[in-house]
Amino acid sequence: MTHYVFLYISDIIMLHMPTLTKENTETKHREDLKKVCHMAYKNGLVSGFDGNFSLKLDNGNILITPKGSHKGLIDEEDFVVVDLDGNILPVGKDMPWHVPSSDLLIHLAAYKKRPDINSFVHAHPPKVISLTVCGIDFNEPVLPDSIVQLGEVAFIPFPGPDRDEELKLTVSALEKHDVIILDRHGAVAVGKDIYDAFYKAELLEHTAEILFNAHTIGNIKTLEPKLIEELIKYRHRTFGRDVEAREGSQLFQNLKQAFKIKNLFKKLFENSSPVFQRILNLVKELLQTAIQNTKYSEQLSLEEKEQLSRELTASILSMLLGRFTKKS
Ligand SMILES: [Zn+2]
What we know:
This protein is an alpha+beta fold. The protein is built from 12 helices and 7 strands.
């Protein structure tokens, strides 16, 4: 079964999008950027004027979408060329003049931080954003393909209206990650060419859709930590030493911590330790009393109160055990 999964993933990588060659001229880059903008709009990764896309030209300058541009209608000559310091470079005689995207600074900071990348995609994928609104962890280990192709996805909590803070956090996350989710806002993906970055953004949205469906149906079966380790190793074998060196092997740490706690709980319950049962009952009683004494409890039925106290007991114990496992 494991081999079958890996073979399936290899097939996807072999059938990867077209790769740019050295002969690519600015004209070809403009065509590719236009194609990606149109696909992003058509596939619902951006709505009209949302998002911004850029790629690195062969001479090191950046080709970026203009400010206030509709991605479904954009044309080759609409893109703006800037140098890495953000200076707008003159365009050809018959070319219209445009102002670069207002997110230009974040694109430039990303290219400076990661000299290995040649493209930057910022989209507002609706299903990804929905997951952030509901507080669902994107890194829930459900799909092997997403683990291999995207690695661990970074998450940046909503920093308020301060775009500088978001820029700082995004660039810092790029140190280790190629894909970043911006809470209640959108996503960023970088890659070796514009198709690579776009494909990652597309897979992110596709994974979010599956997660959304899985959460709607319920009873999610996550992959076991051992298989996750194998998938991470496979990712590093496939994408090379540079990726491994950048990410390190300590991916999905929060997740592993959660598994540790889950296993500890399992062991404690299996042993039916009388001490643990007494602690559990004590915490439960305390919480029940606390719930009874709140105004909120007036709105709850007996069953709901019982359910709430069970959930609170589990959260408190997992917090305690979390501290315990961190020390060990
Ligand atoms: Zn945005």
